[in-house]
Amino acid sequence: WSEVYLDFSEGLPTITASEPVYDSTGNILGVCATDVVLLEDLRKFLASLAIGKTGHAFIMDRKGSILSSSTNEPLTVGKGENAKLVMAIQSEEPVVRETAQYLQQHFGSFDRIERSQQGDYLLNGKRQFVQVSPLKDGKGIDWLIAVVIPEADFMAQIYENTQNTIVLVLIALLVAIAIGILTARWITHPLLKLAQASQEVARGNLDQKVDAGSIKEIAIVANSFNSMTDKLKESVKALRLANEELENRVEIRTAELRKEKERSEQLLLNILPAKIAERLKRAESPTEHFEEVTILFADIVGFTSLSAQMEPMQLVAGLNQIFSAFDELTEKYGVEKIKTIGDAYMVVGGLPIASEDHARAIADMALEMQAYMKTIPNNLGSSLQIRIGINTGPVIAGVIGIKKFIYDLWGDAVNVASRMESHGKPGYIQVTETTYSHLKDLYVLEPRGTISIKGRGEMITYWLIGPKI
């Protein structure tokens, strides 16, 4: 499927489905394609959904453009070549606009909504419940379906039942009082008991019964009163049960929101170091200078040629196996993974929390990475070698920008570490003279000699062989 675009002839939102056609030898013959116009029928379908009493639903793409809506708002603005889809955050419909703005503020970007999420916000002082769910078919469609239901749709029936109960109680009391006034001169004693029982009911004691006696009129009043108290007890009991149910729902919803918050915080910690995440929450600058850290770059040798011979999914599975093992090593040695680019892996020791043994931690991890690559029964179907480069020096580390946060490093020390990897040999770990000075007392290192490094000239480097026995 293509992205949604405006059909040039009709100006309607349209998507294109395409499928390549091959001959018997696997050569491509052409592409079959068909355009699907998102007609008014989709909007009518959304409008026909029973979403509470006044709820709405709309569909938008990951860019925030409205593809369809249960409202009557036009889906496009402008004419001719200037025509474009309406952005949800600029919608004329308050419920669509406010919902889109809430989702963007809550998740930071529509692209970060990877599973069904729930939330709520205030629109004109009234709470709105929101559920947004991704719609993916694995072939190009990647939309978001948002459903908005006002809180009043849930509470209206409870308010109505409470009002009706109060009205019925007032009517019943008025009838009892009127009858008592009209018959007081003839039946004062029985009505005194009835009045006393009414006072008890007014105090909240509903367990009252009035003897009907032998007078027909008194019997009618007494029976009515008794029936009223029974109904009052039933109504109060029903109201109490409704309140308990509502409290339970609130507790459940609060627990769900707490779990969602914990999931969101865990997701943030998977993206950024804990120290940096806490700084961002406090609106503090996440960027700082580190006087000395040790940077490692690793690259899988022959990966480019291997990628041309294998299926993409098999290739990705193999890489995932290798990099997952490397991720476990970062936890083991207390170092920070920075990023992966293709088949390259970058890690640093000594930040975001400074430590004195950063060079040793990186050296131990590099040796274990090297050993792992020699024994791995990987999914790539061939024996692989890894080339590793290490350097020690000052860096700037932090997060820049406002979207898709990533923790990264800057500085000449980073560039030199990258050169150590690219100018190294398969199966070897090349370190700079600075790193050598940190490791020489604890590890076996062999001098490689002087090599020419692009942008740096001649540099003395060493091979890291292993720890001293």
Q: Strand share of the residues?
A: 25-35%
Instruction: Estimate the global geometry from the Cα principal axes.
Output: elongated
| Corresponding CATH superfamily of the largest domain | Nucleotide cyclase, GGDEF domain
Count of alpha and pi helical runs: 11
Determine Rg (CA atoms, Å): 36 Å
- Give the H and E element order: EEEHEEEEHEEEHHHHEHHEEHEEHEHEE
Q: Give the integer mean of the pLDDT values.
A: 81
CATH class value of the largest domain: Alpha Beta
CATH topology of the largest domain: Alpha-Beta Plaits
Q: In the CATH classification, which architecture of the largest domain applies?
A: 2-Layer Sandwich
Tell me the domain tally. 3
Share in helix: 40-55%
**Secondary structural class:** alpha+beta
Unreliable parts = none
Distance between the terminal alpha carbons, to the nearest Å?
Answer: 61 Å
- Count of strand segments: 18
How do you describe this structure in short?
With 469 residues, the protein is of the alpha+beta class. It is built from 11 helices and 18 strands.
Describe the 3D structure.
This protein is 42% helix and 28% strand. It has 469 residues and is α+β, with helices and mostly antiparallel strands. It is elongated. The strands form 4 sheets. Strands 11, 12, 13, 14, 15, 16, 17 and 18 form an 8-stranded mixed β-sheet that branches. The model has no long low-confidence stretch (mean pLDDT 81).
